[in-house]
Write a structure and sequence with these properties.
It contains eight helices and no strands. By secondary structure, it is mainly α. The chain is globular and about 55 Å long. It starts with a helix and ends with a helix. Mean pLDDT is 81; it is low at 169-179.
Length: 224
């Protein structure tokens, strides 16, 4: 199912007509990749967060495995979303608006996104610093809850409170084409929503595949 939706995203994203908004123009097609990947990232991180809570409630080691692998899948889409966003910025902010790369690197949205990804990167570093399985799982679960809570101020709240070139922020372009229904019309919705579902399902498939491999290595967990 996810592959069908992603094929539709790629084909429809490049071939179907899109609204030519000021500054964005044809680059708005990156909406189906950059923004949708970040949506998938948030959903996958949310699933990881839920499994960390489940682990702390019952200390079932399988929940720690689920939390770790969904966090890993979320980080993958976070990195891909950051990369596609940086490419998008190079075409819209640098080429069309004449901004310097040094100025773009100081953008609150980019800084907040980088901080969020580094926080989750520290989650995996933290896990690797413990040899005791139970202690690693407990501390990692607590940190994962903290990391998920930090996503909202670093990505959604603080960047919108300060001046930014990013759409939807004070001083930025009028409206966010990913969220503002005045900007996103039926042509974009035809691909945008299937793309969110497709990228999310791909992330779930990657996470569950890794989980199954881990559980197969420990047959006692698999049959519990």
């Amino acid at each position: 199912m996810s592959f069908v939706l992603l094929v539709y995203t790629v084909v429809g994203g490049f071939l179907l007509d899109v609204p030519h908004l000021f500054i964005l123009y044809e680059t708005i097609r990156n909406l189906y990749f950059h923004v949708c990947m970040w949506f998938a990232m948030m959903i996958l991180y949310g699933v990881s967060f839920a499994y960390s809570i489940k682990y702390l409630r019952g200390f079932d080691y399988r929940n720690d495995i689920f939390a770790r692998n969904f966090a890993a899948a979320g980080s993958l889409f976070g990195i891909l979303g950051y990369a596609t966003g940086a490419i998008w910025a190079s075409y819209t902010w640098v080429t069309d608006q004449g901004q310097s790369m040094s100025g773009i690197l100081k953008e609150p949205k980019l800084i907040g996104a980088a901080i969020a990804l580094l926080i989750y990167g520290a989650y995996f570093v933290l896990r690797g610093s413990f040899t005791d399985i139970d202690k690693r799982a407990r501390i990692s679960a607590v940190y994962n809850i903290f990391a998920f809570a930090m996503l909202f101020p670093s990505i959604w709240i603080i960047p919108r409170l300060v001046g930014s070139l990013h759409p939807g922020a004070p001083g930025g372009d009028s409206g966010n084409p990913a969220l503002n229904f005045k900007d996103i019309d039926s042509r974009l919705r035809m691909v945008f929503y299937p793309a969110v579902i497709g990228w999310t399902l791909l992330g779930v498939w990657i996470a569950t595949l890794r989980i199954r491999i881990e559980l197969m290595k420990d047959k006692t967990l698999l049959h519990e």
